[in-house]
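Milestone M4 deliverable, item 7.
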Amino acid sequence: MHRLRNLLIFVLVAITMLPAGITALAQEEELSGEVVVSFQSNDAQTWEALCEAYMALHPGVDCIVELRPPDGYQEWIRTQFAAGTPRASLVNGNVVADMVNEKVFLDLNEYMDQENPYSGRPWSEDFDEIALANMRDPLTGELYLLNTETVQVLWFYNKAIFEEVGLTDEMEALAAADLNQPTWDQFLGWCDTLSAAGYIPVAIEGDFRSFWEMRIGWMARMYADQFTRDEAELVRCQPGDYCFREGVDDQWTYDPTDPGNDDRTRVTFNPVRKMIAFRDGEQRVDSPAWAAMYENFKAFGERCAPSGWIGTTDAYPLFLTSKAAIRLDGAWLLSTFEKDIRSLAEGTYNYAAGGEGMPTPTPSADDLAAAVFEIGTFNNPTMEGPEVDAPARTIEVNIGFWSVPEKDQAQNDLEVDFLMFVTSPQGQGIYLANKLDPNNPNGGINGPVVIKDVVLPDEIASRFEGLRLIGNTEKDTAGTYRARGIADYQPTVREWVDLAQRYFLGEITLDDFLTGYQASLENHFDEILEHMNLTPEDLDDPSKKPENF
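Output delivered:
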């Protein structure tokens, strides 16, 4: 109860930070129409609270919450556009990268200089400057994906289990180091120790979603980065290229020891040069570097993952019930972990009621009597060897990916006004109070917010403060574009998933996997170009801006 009281106090504080008269001014506006929130989420409580608050200010607006499940979300967005003008006001545009490139979403940068009526300052000034810069296209300034929180992907472990198997001293020494980052071999050694003690080392899924957009997909992208950093010189924008930025690209030098060396504020990569490099065989997926990476992945599957993990849909209950000792996840776990255990024990966990999507393996009745335990964290284990270019980095990125389908001016203006409300101190107070409500079964935040004048409760803020930043891979890098298919082109994604799963199952050899993956990308190359709004003619001269960009 005291946590909820503190959150309510937090909301009041957030609202009192509004400049005098802002709420009254917003109420005087005669806005009307419909706003439909259609994010990939199941947190109805938060968005219904925001809609109610917004409609209280604007009685002529009907704010509707129509959240969507993850399965089929990408196809659902495409269907909305195929049928005409989408009804949805807010969607997660990151799952349809090609449609973002086609500019079917609203360029929010056009509104950034306008005053936010709910904060009394230009909308751009409501955001952390660096976070806002990272949302914008570095060449055009366009902004199609709005982010409000910061996320870091890292590994969580059960401290009681690690103490039981004798790993506590090692973990404390690691935590005292600058990066809290083990080596890959050290990590595999923990898995062996945990297995010998009768525990599943890592709770991880192996279905299509895990390989494409979740944990295995994260690993594929994060570790491909270790082996492709040295390709930066090959594919970066050169003098004379349409994307070359004076004062930026002419000052850049390759430095793999600097985790921020290839940030978009410091260097620009040319997508045309990437496609040329792949076409000409200079960037491949069947090289010794990729072989070394996938040998390490195979060791992970054999020594760390649960038995029969390929095809499993939800391994999280294994971690919550102390059957598995480690979980790869996002920093959001720091705000939801205890609640997730409670929901499992109470039978309100998303999958606990049974039916389609039941966790595999399914927790037994005894397992559901879960008890809270203390968790620790460590950063991505770094692979080592002659093919590795740099230490492992992770996904450290602003997140949200809120997009507005482009419509007529009046409708888009209304939808942006709602976004301004949500990203004001008042709106964020409501947002966070509901997200952090311990009784919200689908709440939780990804990490620190990037909205100004909003402060997290001390208990949550202190958890995030203990994390160590090791560098971000979730950006335009030199070579990770081919980590699991290319550019999210689904035929290449599906074929990579099929090959990778068969490799992990032992149905094909490493050589078969790499050869098959390379062939898949080559066979789909022309389709990939079209998917990226490129033509074969664009590859004749990488200095020219492609006509369809």
